[in-house]
Amino acid sequence: KRKKRFEEQLNKIDGTLCTIEFQREALENASTNTEVLKNMGYAAKALAGAHKEIGDIDQVQDLMDDIQEQQELANEISDAISNPIGFQQDIDEDDLLAELEGMFLSPKYSSTSPFF
User: Fold this and answer.
1) Are 103 and 113 within 8 A, CB to CB?
2) H or E segment to which residue 22 belongs
3) Helix, strand, or coil here: 78?
4) What is the distance between the alpha carbons of residues 23 and 34, in angstroms, rounded to a whole number?
5) Rounded distance, CA 79 to CA 59, Å?
6) Number of other CB atoms surrounding residue 18 within 10 Å
7) What is the pLDDT along the chain (116 residues), one digit of tens a residue?
8) DSSP label at 92?
């Protein structure tokens, strides 16, 4: 009888421990969820502040258009600066190639020339 009574007590204690363990896990989950939600709230406020500082999408698009225009202007300036001053731009490439071939075919260039 004593053994049976101890087994019953053991079963009750085991059931109590299981209940306590489930409660502990539920509390841990609730605490984690609370922290997650709190941090999500902070993040939402931070994003809202950043978006308020940035402005609406029209302002962002206007800024991007301005940047594009300035980039195009910078490319035009770079192209203008990179063109040599005083160099004739209207030289016919076929004429230039023919003159170069004529130079290499002249007797003063030999087959040992570094250009061949």
Assistant:
1) no
2) helix 2-54
3) helix
4) 16
5) 30
6) 10
7) 888 899 999 999 999 999 999 999 999 999 999 999 999 999 999 999 988 888 888 888 999 999 999 999 999 999 888 876 666 566 777 887 888 888 877 766 555 555 54
8) -
